[in-house]
Amino acid sequence: MRGLAGRALLLALAAGSLAMGPGAPPPEYGRVVLGRSARKAGVPAVGFDHWRHRALFTCRLCHVDVGFAMAAGETGVTASTNRSGFHCGACHDGKRLHQEKPLFAACAEGGRIDDPAAACRRCHAGPGGAARRAEEFARITAGLPRDRLGHVDWERAEAERRVRPVDQLPGLSIPRRPLEMKKEVAIASGAAWMDGILFSHPKHSVWNGCEVCHPDIFPSTHSGQARYSMLQISSGEYCGVCHGRVAFPLGDCERCHKRPVR
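Request: output the structure for the sequence above.
Response:
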């Protein structure tokens, strides 16, 4: 009975966390609203969709080399930092090329939010726009594999070479050799009714390197030292920093729990 009760609690927690965002439809999943500086400046907030960049760049490139914090509100991005070549402005400077065309400059000097010809509205779109985002999501992710919940299976897309995320950019990254971490770690499930986990360093290192997870999210790299629960994960700790908010929703349990119980 305790196992059934524990499973009911876990499902209730998952349902609650999904209702706060992770249960959003694929075009809205992983959307981050940057509004602190925008409100002070009296302009609409910026809506950042991870899927727009995820097919092009690794998580490590933006969260380590560029320096975007993993927690909401901690980056301190402003129009001034963008113009100075930091944060969004590290790439969106009007000079860096993408598909042989220069990227638009983020927060260009002299731009006016009320000017239809300015690039401001590309980011400061304000509320709404769900239909437009759905159309763009369908176009950008067309042909990419999906999981059982209808979200893009980015891991499979990368493994099948349908996307080839760039991990370094000139002027932003320190040239380094690709990480060669082949170790997989077996993690026992705390519940008899749920399979264990085989954590793959190779799969995560493609997107994250080491720096995204260690030491901020997982301080210790010794087996068995980091102890956590689904309650903590669903609350946004440990694996939940990414999984449940951006990587893929926690409702697809078998994406992780697929190692037979021994």
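The mean pLDDT is 84.
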